[in-house]
């Protein structure tokens, strides 16, 4: 992460340690408890909390009475003292989320991704949307810790560059992190979309036991964020989570990789819409009548988005043709998830992303049942398939959480960065 | 892990912490260095090291001269003071490895798995082999920390039970851990074979940078052990690492799961032998001429093992038919590994297991080239495909390492167990 002056303003390892224990205590913590929870000396806690009070990150709240001694003053996080912005660039839609210091979503906003525009223009529009969002919510720039951006992979995380996301035409080797930092004036964190979604789920989820799960991301493309031992799995180059080329149908259409039956090619929203048009479930349109086994180039994503809403509605009211297409998609998704469960022995799949909520009522239960009944499933425990409670914002929220995480979570590496 | 008296004899968290730093220092460590490395007080280090000297786990070695002070006595691990036994139950072969306290293999031994015998008989034979191995090496039972056993999944790790390993006929719901503990008199750790292999690789490997890799296990069945952040990934029920049902050939034969082209069914040794017999590369035999798309039941594994050696030799000398079969197998394995690399963004695959070494000269380079050239590969970095340096013993060595690991590696959970 680029660490700008805003981040360094709340930097310092001990400070992060103290902030971290305070934010995890809904009612706040006294200095005595902070010292006992962190192992820091009373003097250090006193110094650090004075600084946190001065900068307005915490405030003195109620009193705690323990035994016959003096009541202890509780220190609480001032959730409105700092903010983070999360942005999610999907080929169809750009989502913005404003998070307060507690990670709660204060405001969000969606715009269609201008597919004809070049990256520079899209980035300029993003910066303008971020500015407008902050202005609408009355958040001054100096209270913004940074911007997190979630984008499709593969990406070069060290350089902050999108390499060649298959569904974002014209976005080859775009230095998104630098460009967005320049355009907004904020430090920027870049993360792969599926990983950001998993981060959001991990941050927001109150289920402390959920240390291992997969996040099935259903956007313009699909992917799978992986959480192992309560940490997201990023891999050697931060590009983990690609499941699109898992083969799930022996006699399926030919994928861009040259093989048949890759799940990504079979179940993405524009393929379901194409199939619905071909089957006569939806009326024909100029833009989505490309051949079913053709490449994904030049697909009109705005139009697909509208038609997908129609399609999901048809399936929801029980239209036989639409349901049949969903059943086939559920079979393919379940098959891919079984491969993931077999590899990682995961007992929990959370589903979300820009297109999930619309189709979830038709897909979720079917997928869960198909996974449970798959003769190829190796582990002998149930696999829960749930919808994310965060909704369509999930990757944007995750990108914002990453900014909070970099600021609030103490980690040894921060000591190195801080020098 | 069942913690018997032998394990508890060297238990205690501080002791494990001190032993851990001593065993990582090839020349040994002085008490001053131990205190500074562990954060323990000089008094605690003095107490703990006295106990370690008394029990013979460490000894006083050379002297270290630092500045004008008194020379410091170096404490070294007595690698021959304790031992661990690793056993690997593969449907074709049972492997035994005797490890000293440093994890070095002192002796190993292989026997064919008696496929006609019931589990009780096989377990009794195992216990006899363990006793004979210890007797041959002159290791008294009181110096044995325990036995680790690696076995095919799926297993119930909490109960120590093999559930229904697909290639071990008659081994349904066998309480292997209890039975082997009873038969040998030692505490027993049970681990899935592919995970044990990954543990061995992690333990023996001197490459400190190798924090993330996959272990491609090539035994009577195949599997993939996963290492993430220098720790093996076990999953929700310790059954992670199954890759057999990854679909890799659209028009492949029908697998036991009912679908076509599962990699496990395509590339296991008995399938290659069957194909070689059908193609006339090997002469016919009574036992391996089952139909190519038939189930794996009643396969004569001893015979397959011998024929596989013939087959690998034919491929090694360039027999066109054998090489063609290997090329096809390499394609399938590479395809499955690409799925794993895409999911986990792994840049390193280590290959091993009972059948790997024989076929490695023909397969390894081909697999590496096929992975690199696969159009479905998402991460943009090279993926190294290497043979394990440990060889055919790898899962047995890993099982032994698990016993050492439980004894020597400090972990907070040990505090809870020690209660």
TrEMBL record, chains A, B:
InterPro entries: ATPase_NBD (IPR043129), ROK (IPR000600), WH-like_DNA-bd_sf (IPR036388), WH_DNA-bd_sf (IPR036390). PANTHER family: BIFUNCTIONAL UDP-N-ACETYLGLUCOSAMINE 2-EPIMERASE_N-ACETYLMANNOSAMINE KINASE, ROK (REPRESSOR, ORF, KINASE) FAMILY. Belongs to the ROK (NagC/XylR) family. This is ROK family transcriptional regulator.
